[in-house]
């Protein structure tokens, strides 16, 4: 297509302005975008998302956007039309008629709203998020079933000891509290170890693969969710253990 000539001015978002010039006003400053030629920042907009949702030149944030003047050598053009609220359907029909009124030799490939364009841009991310959400739900269900089975096994193995405690005056709430505390100590230790491994693994991936570092809050919240799930899963086996009568201590002697 020939040589590309760099623009002399650019408009950026406020988020990008803070990223590039955290200590001062970015308006009027010089930046470098596509080439070694300096480009002066002539405007700052409050917010505008870039059409790419992945990692970009200025980081992973889609709010780090720029408006760079560019002229295509060819007949292909994209028009962005702003309409009043409630008149979108009418405007989309009128746009075709107006463009054809200019010339009938044009080919209109697509007329869509910005909402539809935005949905198409995030289709992959939404599908991936849904798939990962379903996978996480299945893993949590499997984990809960495993905890229930394990605690039921413990109850069966300790049936005589539980009966002896009941015969010595232990209440049902004491048996219930025992299994809840035991599971809390085991699951809590696993949650702490898992959180440390998760934070270390995320830091290593962020440095090795230049990925965005996950906030530690997400990992901690995930650990708390798993911990709460484990406590809920152990409740039914613990209630069964608390219902064991004192006579169970001498039944099989």
Gyration radius, to the nearest Å? 31 Å
> Strand order, biggest sheet?
2-3-1-4
Biggest sheet features: 4 strands, mixed
| H and E order | EHEEEHHHHHHHH
Q: Strand portion, in percent?
A: 5-15%
Number of strands: 4
Percent helix, as a range, is 55-70%
Helix count equals 9
Distance between the termini: 93 Å
Instruction: Give the mean pLDDT.
Output: 82
Main structural class: alpha+beta
Would you identify the regions where 5 or more consecutive residues have pLDDT less than 50?
55-59
Shape: elongated
List keywords for this structure.
9 helices, alpha+beta, four-stranded mixed sheet, 253 residues, single chain
Walkthrough of the structure:
Helix 6 packs antiparallel against helix 8 (235-242). The longest helix has 37 residues, at 172-208. This protein is 56% helix and 6% strand. Strands 2-3-1-4 form a 4-stranded mixed β-sheet. The chain is built from 9 helices and 4 strands; from the N terminus they run βαβββαααααααα. Residues 55-59 have low confidence and may be disordered. It has helices at 14-20, 88-102, 114-121, 123-157, 159-167, 172-208, 216-233, 235-242, 248-251, and strands spanning 9-13, 30-31, 39-45, 66-67. The protein is an alpha+beta fold and 253 residues long.
């Amino acid at each position: 297509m020939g040589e590309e000539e760099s623009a002399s001015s650019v408009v950026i978002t406020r988020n990008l302005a803070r990223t590039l010039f955290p200590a001062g006003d970015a308006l009027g400053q010089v930046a470098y975008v596509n080439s070694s030629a300096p480009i002066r920042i002539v405007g700052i907009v409050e917010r505008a998302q870039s059409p790419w949702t992945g990692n970009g030149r200025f980081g992973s944030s889609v709010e780090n956007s720029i408006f760079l003047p560019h002229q295509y050598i060819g007949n292909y053009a994209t028009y962005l039309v702003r309409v009043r609220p409630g008149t979108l359907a009418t405007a989309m029909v009128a746009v075709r008629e107006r463009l054809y009124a200019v010339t009938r030799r044009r080919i209109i490939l697509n007329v869509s709203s910005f909402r539809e364009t935005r949905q198409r841009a995030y289709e992959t991310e939404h599908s991936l998020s849904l798939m990962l959400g379903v996978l996480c739900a299945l893993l949590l269900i499997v984990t809960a079933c495993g905890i229930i089975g394990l605690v039921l096994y413990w109850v069966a193995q300790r049936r005589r000891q539980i009966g002896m405690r009941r015969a010595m005056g232990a209440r049902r709430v004491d048996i219930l509290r025992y299994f809840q505390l035991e599971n809390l100590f085991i699951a809590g230790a696993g949650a702490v170890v898992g959180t440390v491994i998760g934070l270390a693994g995320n830091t290593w991936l962020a440095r090795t693969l230049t990925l965005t570092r996950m906030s530690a809050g997400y990992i901690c919240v995930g650990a708390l969710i798993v911990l709460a799930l484990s406590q809920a899963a152990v409740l039914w086996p613990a209630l069964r253990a608390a219902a064991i009568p004192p006579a169970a201590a001498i039944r099989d002697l």
